[in-house]
Amino acid sequence: MCLVGLHPPQDSRTGRAACAWRLAAAVPGVGFLAIVLSPPLNHDAAAVLGFAERWLAGEGLYTDLIDVNPPLIFILNALPAALAAHAPIGAVAALQLCLLALCAFSVLLAWCLVPRDAGAPPIGTACLIAALPVLTLGAGYEFAQREHIMVVAALPYLLLAAQRAEGRATTGPALAIGVAVLAALGFALKPHFLAIPALVEALVLAWRGPRRALRDPVPWTMAGVWLVYLAAIALFFPAYTARVLPMIRAYYIDLSGFSWWQILLTERLGTAILVLLPLGALAFLPGARHRFGALPQVLALAALGAALSAVVQLKGWDYHAVPARLITGLLAVVMAACWLDRALPAAQARRAAAPLALAATLSLAVFQITGAAAPWRELRWPASDGGLLAATLEWAAEGQRVLVLSPYIDPVAQALAYAEARSTLPTMTIWPLQGVYAGTCARQGARYREAAEMPPAETLVWHRVVREFAAAPPAALLVAVNPLIANCGRGFDLLEYYARHPAFAATMRRYRAGPVVAGHRLYTRIE
Asked: Where are the domains of the chain?
């Protein structure tokens, strides 16, 4: 048999045909695999990986390295960073290897939760088994984003939640606890993700009733993981709550300027919601519980929670819509399979299962490709701004330190990753400067604040940058031509801003101006 869990064919000819269909159903997954292994790595994933490498190299997380992300994503990225440091493999390849291992582990866990008994619906079984690998790879360029990792970690939990709601004890306690721990770690990557288990557990509670639901170890296991994580943040990363959270509240949350209704109208999320709403309504129609079971309702609420997570972040970035799109795609597959299993005679459903599995994976692939998972970015990379910047950094500072003064993670983070260069900026971008100067200007007649007037966030990126630049001049500087900071009578010039300090100005005399690539001026050190 080509895939576990499918019903055996009646004869060898039928078996060979079914095997061919199942192999064909794997083709979209292979296509997405080629996309996610091709450069460029996602910009945020590259930036987080770079911070993890610097953390392992001795810089303190939230003391030397300041970022809005809670520590879990850096802890997880420490594994590929350590692998790259101690094995003949680059950091980007190490990250991809670790994530593919996570995808495979998640799929295997999920397959363990797909019904295999003789009474299992053949089309639903075949479509789920074929769709799950495609789903873990279907994020395309957003592969390795925190949203993508969360969905991969949550897939087995969503299947288990449907079984728990229906009261089907088909898994042992060890598997259930393992699934719960994996999901809890995925949801802990961002606090916004907790909307998903909140809605799903509310559904399980409604199906089973309080007495049985509260005896279930799964939600308590997840809650225990989250409490341990919160305690670990307070114990091992106190600077996150003392220093970073105030900066987030003051300068980061409102940086994009979007309102909640504008987020709903973004192309990626708005399209997912338009698909989700009718499917979710069908899943909750009177009688749907008995016709389709709990899984469509679980997936509908999970997709709704994912959409809410995207809205409350108030950024409107494409990758925020990835969970809603992926889970909505799986919901569509499950709803169609449920309907066909009921509409077709049993023998015909068994014969149609393998071809319909191919249709399911193709449908998922088309849905994701239209949601920005198409490989155009990968095909254009060598000649793109990011590819040219990566090649420039490889020439100027491969494997060395670079001071990056830029508001852009994309394409700077990927270029640094492929050049194996390391940023010296204490933040991933100059976002504290953007936040401090957003909508306000210095005292009348001055473009920049003096050191004595700077708030703590500005002081951080002022003193740290100047001190480290003068003490250990990096191999190169990369300075954004447009820093995306409000114009107060004249533009904000990043080099002019820092050159007000005599130590910075003196050190800059050791650098030669180079070309402008991808909106950034390169300066190389004169040896």
From this structure: 24-377, 384-525
